[in-house]
Amino acid sequence: MSEVSTQSSAATTLSAPHKTKKSYLNKIGFGFLYLILGLFAVIQIYPLIWLLFFSLKTNQEVFGMSPFSLPQDPQWGNYTKAWTSGNIGVYFFNSVWITVLSVALTIILASFVTFAVTRMSWKLSGLVLGLFLVAYMIPLHSTIIPLFNMYNSANLIDSPVSIVLSYTAFNLPLTIMILLGFYRTFPREIEEAAVMDGCSVHRIFFRITLPMTVPVLSTTAIINMIYNWNEFVFVNTFISSDNWKTLTVGINNFVGQYLTDWGAIGATLVISIVPILLAFLFLSDKIVEGMAAGSVKG
Amino acid sequence: MKNVMSNKYVIALYTLPALLLILTLIYIPIVLSGYYGFMDWDGIGEMTFIGLDNYITLIQDKLFWTSTYHSFLLAIFSTASLLLYLAISLVLASKIKGSDLLRKIYLIPMLLSSVAIAQLWMKIFDPTNGMANKLLEMFGVENTPIWLADPDIALYAIFIPVIWQFAGFYILIYYAALKNVPDEIIEAAKIDGASSLQIAYKIKLPLISGIFKVTIMLAVVGSLKYFDLIYVMTGGGPNGASEVMASYMYKEAFKLNNFGYGSAIGFGLLVIALFMTWLISKLTKSKDDVQF
């Protein structure tokens, strides 16, 4: 899928104008299409702008004025209130380390499997790969009651271990699928030469293959990161104490307490989505590429 | 020479950790889910074997079928909205300026957590101060709806943010597929005098039909197991009006402590999802599938 991004950037330079007599009509048509596309963009983005606005407003402003009005006197206090009066800091920290640890585990384990399946020769490789690919089709909701029971008997309920293990297991299939596409098109000559030179498998994997796959690893890392950061069901089910809750579940309970303080609710929500928006601002091409790759391969 | 690359010890070392994870956390649980379905069990105490009772109850349970119906409604809405996304992608991919930026703006909701989206849209649907009703008032609507509190509307009101959330994702997929259509074919058709509509309808759409089938699958199966927004926004209410399969399962197990019956529902969800996967791949199968 890596050619997609290069093609799309090349595409803009290709707009060869076809001058015909219909060009006036074409212009009107194009204007109309732009209007629709623009309107769609507004629908996609305006709810978030509205959220940002009301996170800086007082209740009087929210209730009394138009949803399009700017905050008159930005209430930054809403943000200090959101950050200090709850456990947001703890939730935020939990989200960060649980996400990072799970992503690292997923990527290294998925790389091991993909390497073994595509580069090494053994009889059961097809079956093992099949198990991972079929697991992608299984809805996680069907596993949640037994998982709850298993973690419960292993004393892992209300422990972040259950979350990290679940994230890793459920992200492995998609990660392997994305890696497969990359490994299969990647030339094996270097690895084969290394075998001739008497390199050990570990050396080949860690010194040659893994460094060569860094571009696709970063793509899968970002996709995994977004999924883990936003995950809700596992944490909501397996974690009950505030110490281990992540941001999604934490803010869901936290926001519920406020009920009518719109400013504080808005500020909490904004705090929770800012990291993702920042990531998107700097890594949008990678994110776009990864999202497309993951779905198309599936 | 190839001996190093078929070292059994290394193969086991590389595959077993991941394999053990998915076997214990994905495959064993789905078997257990079917098994727990045979039990009367509150999640804490002893299990009692009750045979097929839970599954018989499930088949006769009106609430289960209503929630299944709601899940399928969502699947139909999501699939229908694919046509809109396809139309938008066709325009976006036809080399217009700013398509890169627009595509990224469309994608933003997809990156947010379901909880943030749910909480935001609960505010949008707020009957007195929400953006939805304020907008309706600006257009002179007097009896504004109470959205999530109205049993007739709640389910459809939730469909709106669900579709809002995933729009950019599907547009992104179609856009990527359309960009893979070779330029030479399009140019050749233009020289032959084909109009933009003809090119879209006769050339581009057939060439991306493979991707279209994948997205139908994603939309249907994704809808059938949909949970997050509904759980946060209405919890399946009011009075079951927006209950879907996954939320019904969750409620039975974790709110009412019917772990046995909840497992039976979860197993039913699995069977229905896998059956639909099979059915769709069967229905959309054709010999001339284009592979990307």
TrEMBL record, chain A:
Q: Classify the protein's membrane topology as the record does.
A: Multi-pass membrane protein
GO-annotated cellular components: plasma membrane
What Gene3D superfamilies does the database record attribute to this sequence?
Answer: MetI-like
Which compartments is it annotated to reside in?
Cell membrane
- Domain (ABC transmembrane type-1): give its ranges: 92-283
Q: What is its main location?
A: membrane
**What keywords sit in the KW lines?**
ATP-binding, Cell membrane, Membrane, Nucleotide-binding, Transmembrane, Transmembrane helix, Transport
Mind telling me which residue stretches traverse the membrane in this protein? 28-53, 96-117, 124-148, 160-183, 204-227, 262-283
Q: Which InterPro entries match?
A: MetI-like, MetI-like_sf
Q: Which domain of life is it from?
A: Bacteria
The family database entries (CDD domains) matched by this protein are listed as: TM_PBP2
Keyword Ribosomal protein appears in the UniProt entry:
no
Under the heading Pfam families, the entry gives: BPD_transp_1 (PF00528)
MF terms from GO for this chain are:
ATP binding
Q: Which GO terms describe its biological process?
A: transmembrane transport
Presence of keyword ATP-binding: yes
The family classification in the record reads: Belongs to the binding-protein-dependent transport system permease family.
The cross-references to PANTHER family, in alphabetical order and at most eight, read: ABC TRANSPORTER PERMEASE PROTEIN MG189-RELATED, ABC TRANSPORTER PERMEASE PROTEIN MG189-RELATED-RELATED
Name the chain's protein: Xylose ABC transporter, ATP-binding component
In its UniProt entry, the species of origin is given as: Mesobacillus selenatarsenatis (strain DSM 18680 / JCM 14380 / FERM P-15431 / SF-1)
What is the taxonomic lineage of the source species?
A: Bacteria, Bacillati, Bacillota, Bacilli, Bacillales
UniProtKB/TrEMBL annotation, chain B:
Name a single GO biological process: transmembrane transport
Q: How does it sit in the membrane?
A: Multi-pass membrane protein
Question: Where does this polypeptide localize?
Answer: Cell membrane
Q: Which UniProt keywords apply?
A: Cell membrane, Membrane, Transmembrane, Transmembrane helix, Transport
According to the entry, every stretch annotated as the ABC transmembrane type-1 domain falls at: 71-280
- Tell me yes or no: is Cytoplasm among this UniProt entry's keywords: no
The membrane-spanning stretches of this chain are 12-38, 72-93, 105-122, 153-177, 205-227, 259-280
GO CC annotation: plasma membrane
Q: Which domain of life is it from?
A: Bacteria
Q: Which family does it belong to?
A: Belongs to the binding-protein-dependent transport system permease family.
Q: What is this protein called?
A: Xylose ABC transporter, permease component
